What we know:
Helix content: 40-55%
Mean pLDDT: 92
Strand content: 5-15%
Shape: globular
Distance between the termini: 26 Å
Low-confidence stretches: none
Structural class: alpha+beta
Bound molecules: adenosine-5'-diphosphate, magnesium ion
Amino acid sequence: MKNVPELFGCMVFDDSAMKARLPKETYQSLRRTIADGKHLDLSVANVVANAMKDWATEKGATHFTHWFQPMTGITAEKHDSFISPSSDGKVIMEFSGKELVRGESDASSFPSGGLRATFEARGYTAWDPTSYAFIKDHTLCIPTAFCSYGGEALDKKTPLLRSMEAVNRQALRLLKLFGVDDVTSVKTTVGPEQEYFLIDQEVYNKRPDLFYTGRTLFGAKAPKGQELEDHYFGSIKPRIAAFMEDLDEELWKLGILAKTEHNETAPAQHELAPIFTTTNIAADHNQLTMELMKKVAQKHGLVCLLHEKPFAGVNGSGKHNNWSLSTNTGVNLLEPGDTPAENAQFLLFLCAVIKAVDDYQDLLRVSVATAGNDHRLGSNEAPPAIVSIFVGSDLNEILESIDKDTTYTAPEKIQMKIGVHTLPRFPKDTTDRNRTSPFAFTGNKFEFRMPGSSLSVSGVNMVLNTAVAEELKQFADALENTEDFKTALHTLIKKTIHEHKRIIFNGNGYDEAWVKEATQVRGLLNLKTTPDAMPYFIHEKNVRLFAEHKVFSPAETLSRYEILTDNYCKLITIEALTMLSMVRTAYLPALSKCGKQLAEAALTKKQFVQTADCSYEESIVTRLSVLTGKICKKTEVLDSAMAELSKAEDATRKAQFIRDRILGAMNELRTAVDEAETICDKQLWPFPSYGDLLFSVK
Length: 698
Ligand code: ADP
Ligand code: MG
């Protein structure tokens, strides 16, 4: 048996390691930096660096790296060894405070979305002391932010940290109004539930679409999919169980609170949920989790697919972003309280989120817009592309009664006066789970269900935090310096509910009627694809929002837009080119061979028996020749569309062209090939089938 408490965090230079290894004064100075963001003195950094190096080398580390999250969506690291030559011709292991807090990095090899043209190509990485250093592959990893020399953010962590700071600033203003004076910081918390697929390495290696693009671009449905609902929470196969055990262990070593592992809806699909933590740490941990999932899978002869939609016809994978606000005194601000004041405070923060989601539904949609996620949203397996909030029937009734000045009936008849009445006890909506809602209140947190499985949670939370910070700011502006706080509060909450209740929807998000009601009656946005959603990112109101809260300068906002749009176009281009290559070099030759084989078989039969029944051969050869003709034509259509795409001037036009011309051509080509797969000789079919892939782990 493993000693989990001993194992947990053993590869992390966490609080206990710091306490044990740092002189008391250094430790306290570092704690102040971590808790309040105080500047870290270089002399302190030198002591910390040395202690870190000793700790790391004792655990077998030979190198260190500044570990950061560039806009590529994955993490980046550049390894340097600790060695330093000594006078006797040998080496000593060294690590300075300067090396700890700041690193140089050539920014020109990372996407910067035009920032590079205006600013220097050099970039630097700066230690985020709120996220502990850890050891991975014999390397001491220092979590860092990545910026240009002008201070422009080139990564995903910097804006996330800035957005957390914005929430902190505004939330503290409000708490002060409620007379809460023991709170010195408010942080957002996140628990991201991670879905993924595991398939056998050998079959994976035979699918170029999987290794170039992460998803299958072709494949006829297997006779069995997820219809029997026999996989969800089903018993876990031994090979998968061994993987999960190994993964948990690796995650625990890194201090990642992996908690729940189970099978998901689709065959070969699974989920891991960690216990929530501070947002920037949760984001770091989620990146590490994804990386380790891939690595550990490899050790077990498996491949972990994190793509949002690796297989057509069965569910794709999401990443539910559970989010809340927590004070340094341990109070969850989205937890309904016991006293009238606590309740009023809860309702105010709840209203801030409701208003934020309504005002910035476009940005939230953009924050989850990727080529992969476009296959999920709105396709009756994941939330629709329309953003709305589920609050459950009980809380909804309370909000309605405040809005309409009517009495709330259950469990007792009261007319809520905020700040005077205690909220009626309403049950947490755990059973009445509305799985079709993109943004659900689940008792003491919100669960944002739109993010795709491969997405970094940084962007999503950066948007959510900034939008909430803006509403908190508006509330604080309205409530500070009022003569009668309680009345002003009541009026503000009532007004907010009234003006923003259009975003609350407790019904079935998969229902066609909802799309109509949302767009035609409520005026909500339905941004179906990434090219539809992306341009909203640079709408004036959103550029202003980011600038106001110092999350992005207008130039940074524009650069993000360009990077994300460009990335979308590149991904689809890779997919289309992979399709063309698979069709031309494998599918068409296989189909031609199959036709030839059957035609020859029929001829041979007839040589023996003139009246032989060749209806099988004849019918298949006929169908195959029609299909190969069709596939050939569709290939040319896609090919010439790709040629046209390369002429589009900028990323925005390219993305639109992809939406209007390329995606349809890709779909049509796939449909024809998938149909051919159902009649072609399996021996001749060049790639493993859906059945081979989805049921590859026995
Ligand atoms: P359920 O299974 O009902 O969704 P869980 O308690 O299992 O509820 O939570 C699901 C995820 O939400 C977990 O990752 C959990 O850590 C996270 N979570 C719970 N409370 C919070 C919170 N206050 N802030 C952020 N995430 C939270
Ligand atoms: Mg959940």
